[in-house]
Write a structure and sequence with these properties.
Blueprint: H1 8-22, E1 41-46, E2 63-71, E3 77-83, E4 88-94, E5 101-108, E6 113-121, E7 127-133, E8 138-144, H2 173-182, E9 189-196, E10 202-208, E11 214-220, E12 227-233, E13 242-249, H3 251-261, E14 268-272
Antiparallel strand pairs: 1-14, 2-3, 3-4, 4-5, 6-7, 7-8, 8-9, 10-11, 11-12, 12-13
């Protein structure tokens, strides 16, 4: 049998010829896309064209960042979003018939807030929001005090003499707690400080269980020690949150995940209109 020796350049040329013949027979696989007609899109929240960049900004960032939508058992549509120019967090309800946002409430407007905003509904359909308060480098859990008691009376531990400071004169212990949690929050909203520290809260997510216990997962960035996937919650009878490490990652991995979860819009929050006949 005669052996044929094919040079390296000939092998490359043969390979390119094979790809040009057989590769052209295969359709390019692309991810599915949906083209929405402009007539089927309705603006919900937007900024006026007259808004100017703040002194420290190069351009107007707009509103509708980190958009969240949840629907309760009664069919009520709940929305939450962030105004990126002012760092304010907002909550509102969408009328399912008129498709107009109503009852817009400011959740927090103290400093820069709202990064990685997530909203979940309680067992009774009340909104609960978790987000990063950038100025304080802390994760905050926000809810309305009319929807929740801060701590269920059935789960409160018995008071220990000498361990709990007395509230100010004329103010109950519960009123003292509410006043503290009201600081920097919008009217009627309370803010619980979950965890604070440099690099916390990246890509966070929030789930409320059937007992209205908040469960929060997030990344904690640390260039020298590596990044950590964290879990925080508070159980019955607790006011403070506990934190546990679930997994460790390289710093490069965490930045890629954070970039993927960093949802942005073009300065507006949209909702599809009903099909028109």
């Amino acid at each position: 049998m005669r052996k044929y020796i094919i040079s390296k350049s000939a092998r490359i040329l043969l390979g390119l010829t094979f790809l040009s013949i057989f590769g052209a027979c295969k359709d390019v696989v692309l991810p599915p896309t949906t083209i929405v007609e402009p007539s089927q899109v309705q603006r919900l929240i937007w900024v006026e064209k007259t808004r100017k960049p703040l002194p420290e900004q190069v351009k107007v960032l707009g509103t509708g960042w980190y958009p969240n939508i949840e629907i309760d058992d009664a069919g009520q549509i709940h929305l939450a979003w962030v105004d990126a120019d002012y760092g304010d967090v907002f909550y509102g309800r969408l009328d399912p018939i008129s498709r107009q946002v109503s009852d817009i409430e400011t959740v927090e407007s103290d400093g820069a807030s709202g990064s990685f905003l997530k909203m979940a509904l309680s067992s009774r359909g009340y909104p609960v929001l978790a987000y990063l308060q950038q100025d304080r480098a802390q994760i905050r859990l926000a809810h309305r005090h009319k929807d929740f008691v801060i701590q269920d009376k059935r789960t409160q531990p018995e008071p220990v003499a000498g361990r709990q400071p007395a509230p100010p004169q004329g103010m109950s212990k519960k009123e003292t707690i509410v006043q503290k949690l009201n600081k920097g929050m919008g009217a009627g909203w309370l803010g619980e400080d979950v965890i604070y520290g440099t690099g916390v809260g990246v890509g966070l997510n929030l789930v409320m269980d059937e007992f209205d216990t908040p469960h929060i997962v997030y990344f904690k960035q640390n260039q020298s020690l590596g990044d950590k996937f964290m879990y925080a919650s508070r159980g019955p009878g607790q006011r403070g949150f506990s934190e546990d490490v679930l997994e460790r990652f390289s710093h490069k991995t965490i930045l890629e995940n954070a970039s993927a979860s960093h949802t942005k819009t073009t300065g507006m929050l949209y909702f599809p209109k009903k099909n028109q006949v």
